[in-house]
């Protein structure tokens, strides 16, 4: 089911410079409005979480004066918790959209790992990234390496962060609260103690940062050197193609 | 009929007035409210004393040392009388075969109606030969004593989690009580040692209400272990304000700022030190200017330095904390990205050159 919203821009009427008739795939609407807005809300939430989280573990230098004059750690922790809730709500909405949105919305949740073509493309793109292959292939949705990093590093990483994050938050809200009952009560025993849980929360946070670095670099590189649009797509929703030929995942798209 | 607690107290010269005072204070300590003090008094006046076996495995006796210092003036006397502490090799008068016979007697005579308190834990390696009680491995005595017990109390971090003798690499394979006893309710009262008043309160609760207190998922009484030290710490306002001791003996330490940066484990430790405090409410580690070492937490010996906020991770060969490892990994990935970008740019420029 495709839910159209008022925010969706009209499909480009004028053919792109590479329009029909010369073997170019016309622009395809890939990222619907909710996906695009989620992407940026989520990115800001992650940035806020990484910075505030770092300062919770390693607080800034001591402030002088009376304790009643300041609430610095309070604000840092508030930022972390507020951004955490925004991220959780965003992820819940995004997960919902994976099922009710277009086919592309589901891809990072369920990568087509059972098809031989997917792995053939993965191998090709891998060779391209290690400079053994000159040209990348074209994709309507994502290239398979992007899908794999988004699925494993981002999706599983964020899920881990949400669960451990709520477990740590439940320690503060206390017994009897839903955070404690649903998360803290069983997650802390898995990690043995709260201190270990903190350690793993930190490690996973760094892996999210590494994902962000790879994700942004991959996007910049493919925008410049690849055969399809990247940045304008996450802004407008439309994928355009810079060279002729049918995209690899056209049959699924 | 067996003597009641009250009979014992009166026999020992405790006045009724002192007895009632104890009841109201204990009711308050248990968080029961003043209206339950008479209930407590009534229970102590009418109920026969439940025998308690107090076994010692691999331990340092700090739990016993704490227990006998339970702060309320009357508490140590009363609790020792209340308990009908029939066997505790540290403080009992009898010794040798005479002492061991008491265990036998309680297990058989008071079937299903005695409490087994365990201080320390059993080592399992070499068939338990690392801890011998009365010529037999402690693990055997423990299993035998637990066989007919109503409930088991694991005193301290040794019995609850394993503590120092179970720290890596744990050569004697010491294990906490719940790894050996599976068919009895186990109340864990962790701490190294536990707070004296917590120990006396737990046992008073069990004897008074004839049921075990409400436990959390890790088997600790909720009334004492449901919050972290940090949640009720009197230095918490300095934490919220962002005021920390930056180095031992700095000006901030003199001002009593938060010890978070000095590795205080208060934020990750469940215990009631910051409310109950120690030595009759006189002080507790943080109040004395030293961070909490997290002694009531599982595996606290293996959680790295007592003076680091972030735990060192040893699995990677180099001993570093999560943030150092994470930042290093991010740095390596960043460098790889930069190198990859440079190569991409050169290759691209070259191929463009070829095309022209």
Automatic annotation (TrEMBL), chain A:
Annotated ranges, domain Cytochrome b561 bacterial/Ni-hydrogenase: 30-237
SUPFAM superfamilies for the chain: Transmembrane di-heme cytochromes
Region spans: Disordered: 1-20
Keywords, sorted A to Z: Cell membrane, Electron transport, Heme, Iron, Membrane, Metal-binding, Transmembrane, Transmembrane helix, Transport
InterPro entries: Cyt_b561_bac/Ni-Hgenase (IPR011577), Di-haem_cyt_TM (IPR016174), Hydrogenase_cytochrome (IPR051542), Ni-dep_Hydgase_cyt-B (IPR000516)
Intracellular or extracellular location(s): Cell membrane
Keyword Kinase among record annotations: no
UniProt superkingdom: Bacteria
Main location per the UniProt record: membrane
UniProt entry tagged with the keyword Lipid biosynthesis: no
A cellular-component GO term for this protein: plasma membrane
Membrane-topology annotation of the record: Multi-pass membrane protein
GO molecular function: electron transfer activity; heme binding; iron ion binding
Matches recorded under Pfam families: Ni_hydr_CYTB
TM ranges: 37-56, 76-97, 145-169, 203-220
GO biological process: respiratory electron transport chain
Family that this chain belongs to: Belongs to the HupC/HyaC/HydC family.
Protein name: Ni/Fe-hydrogenase, b-type cytochrome subunit
TrEMBL record, chain B:
Cofactor(s), by name: [3Fe-4S] cluster; [4Fe-4S] cluster
Residues binding [4Fe-4S] cluster 1: 60, 63, 158, 192
EC number: 1.12.99.6
Localisation per UniProt entry: Cell membrane
Origin superkingdom: Bacteria
Enzyme class, broadest EC rank: oxidoreductase
Domain named Cytochrome-c3 hydrogenase C-terminal: residues: 225-306
Protein family according to the UniProt entry: Belongs to the [NiFe]/[NiFeSe] hydrogenase small subunit family.
Summary of subunit composition and partner proteins: Heterodimer of a large and a small subunit.
PANTHER family per the UniProt record, alphabetical: HYDROGENASE-1 SMALL CHAIN, NIFE / NIFESE HYDROGENASE SMALL SUBUNIT FAMILY MEMBER
Protein name: Uptake hydrogenase small subunit
